[in-house]
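FORM 12-B: Structure-to-Sequence Request
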């Protein structure tokens, strides 16, 4: 690189730093122009994204969509939902049909690169497991040699299943189905000996779909790492930043003890981090290209990470999943927000 090119690059970098705001891209501009976030969600997964009896969408993935809308518009209702199957989800994002995919999707190298996606922070650390009927008397995955196993196509679950059984010298008959609800129905009809998916999904299916939840058990082995979270397209760093820091704001709020109910009390806080987070000290909103109260709006309208976890998949939900790896780093978990400054 010659001296003139180096000088031009340095000048451009200086301008960017001085302005303090990333150049908006097509997605962020389009979202602001139309006045809502088009969010791709699951067709129906309890705790993550599913319509309730009134048709309103709920779940931890849905709350990420709502939080993003709150950060951009100051209004968590500025969202429209597109239910997608596992096979449809990436095409919908790549084509621009949706602005963000928030559909219990695993972050992998090839999705991050070959599919042209960017993954903001993981919102749920999970792993793949197996659901079986207690009547089979099976205590371990290794007892499933020769079993018929229900699995959804177009997922990392399908690939992990093949890898695990091949590695351990086990045979199985895959019963591969595209739509999630059909996979579940097929399993409970008795056509499969086991149903494999993320353990969080298995817990949801057992609690909400099984004829008698007590008749089914999740086997103890977890055979994969499944970091689940939203995804956006390559090519718009500012939109990526908005989604990313919206999640980090909810984690920081939990760490600071700020909730949707007490956030107004923190507006007089002397803590410099809280002041930056809530927009009392300006600058963070400008850096993202949104209002200085962006994080305040997220917390006030949607809640901190603990709130969205507990009501959707934790103690306040039918799933009642322990925080485990999804606890804050201060409690031995993996959840950690970089400095907001």
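FORM 12-B RESPONSE
SEQUENCE OUT:
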């Amino acid at each position: 690189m010659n001296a003139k090119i180096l000088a031009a690059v340095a000048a451009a970098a200086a301008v960017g730093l001085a302005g303090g705001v990333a150049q908006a891209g097509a997605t962020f501009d389009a979202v602001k122009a139309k006045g809502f976030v088009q969010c791709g969600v699951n067709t129906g997964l309890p705790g993550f994204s599913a319509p309730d009896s009134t048709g309103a969408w709920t779940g931890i993935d849905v709350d990420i969509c709502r939080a993003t809308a709150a950060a951009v518009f100051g209004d968590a209702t500025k969202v429209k939902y597109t239910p997608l199957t596992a096979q449809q989800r990436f095409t919908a994002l790549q084509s621009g049909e949706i602005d963000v995919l928030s559909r219990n999707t695993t972050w992998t190298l090839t999705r991050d690169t070959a599919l042209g996606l960017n993954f903001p922070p993981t919102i749920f650390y999970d792993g793949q497991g197996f659901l079986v009927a207690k009547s089979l008397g099976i205590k371990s995955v290794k007892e499933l040699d020769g079993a018929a196993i229900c699995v959804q196509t177009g997922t990392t679950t399908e690939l992990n299943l093949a890898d695990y059984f091949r590695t351990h010298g086990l045979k199985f008959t895959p019963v591969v189905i595209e739509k999630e609800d059909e996979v579940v129905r097929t399993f409970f009809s008795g056509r499969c000996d086991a149903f494999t998916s993320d353990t969080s999904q298995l817990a949801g299916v057992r609690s909400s779909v099984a004829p008698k939840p007590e008749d089914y058990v999740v086997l103890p082995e977890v055979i994969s790492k499944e970091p689940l979270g939203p995804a956006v397209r390559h090519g718009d760093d500012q939109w990526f930043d908005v989604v990313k820091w919206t999640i980090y704001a909810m984690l920081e709020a939990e760490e600071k003890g700020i909730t949707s109910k007490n956030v107004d009390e923190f507006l007089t806080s002397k803590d410099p981090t809280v002041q930056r987070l809530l927009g009392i000290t300006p600058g963070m909103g400008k850096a993202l290209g949104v209002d200085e109260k962006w994080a305040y709006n997220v917390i006030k309208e949607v809640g901190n990470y603990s709130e969205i976890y507990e009501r959707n998949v934790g103690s306040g939900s039918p799933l009642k999943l322990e925080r485990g790896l999804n606890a804050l780093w201060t409690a031995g978990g993996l959840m950690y927000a970089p400095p907001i400054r």
